[in-house]
Amino acid sequence: MSRYPRRFGLLLVSMLAAGCSAMNDVVPDSVTGAFDREGEGVPFCEALYDHNDWLDGAVAAESRWGIPIYVSLAELNMSLGTEASQYIDPSDADWQSYRIETENWQAQKGDIVVALDFLGWHGQLAVERNQLTLEQAGQLYLSSRLGHGGYHRFQYQPDLLLKRQSEQVQQRAMTYREQLRQCPRIRERAGSFFRWPW
């Protein structure tokens, strides 16, 4: 940790400490907003290098389900405002279906690797059932929150708050995609799991 600026180290510590008491962004705007376009010392990249569970989970979900890491991370980053122990807030039916189909009976919504895997699994179904693509982060967010049937109903009776949140998720995904271009070590680590160039 000593190689990072002191304020970034304090940020990571505070994020970990707050994880059990408040629903925080997985990758806060304060981290993603300050990056060097030359690719050296990019805080967002360094956070992924240091937080292996974020990176491993996102890479595994992309390898298994095809969801780009900048999409899954953007969906996780939306502050749900429900339970502090959850990174995702799927419908009960979708959550049970995920546990059954993946045979992951011990799955917990507060496990970031599980949350990323769920988003990949659900994204694949959204491609089939809702005619979405895995690049449509905002629409995938809506689908994961509302369920596939709920997503269809949303098209006719939109919730303005969810619509605004989905737009924020889409914008965040595009920001993450651009910033991840500055992370050569992530490309080396991920290998064929990443579809470069984006």
Describe the structure.
The protein is an all-alpha fold. It has one domain (6-189). Helix content is 62%, strand content 0%. The protein contains ten helices and no strands. Helix 4 packs parallel to helix 7 and helix 5 packs across helix 9 (160-180). It is globular and about 45 Å long.
List the helices and strands and how they pair.
Elements: H1 6-18, H2 29-32, H3 43-50, H4 52-65, H5 69-77, H6 92-102, H7 112-129, H8 137-154, H9 160-180, H10 184-190
In short:
By secondary structure, the protein is mostly helical. The chain has ten helices and no strands.
Total count of helical runs of at least 4 residues:
10
Shape: globular
* Order of helix and strand elements from N to C terminus: HHHHHHHHHH
> What level of helicity do the residues show?
55-70%
Low-confidence segments, ≥5 residues, pLDDT <50? 1-24, 33-39
Task: Give the helix/strand class.
Answer: mainly alpha
CA-CA gap between termini? 30 Å
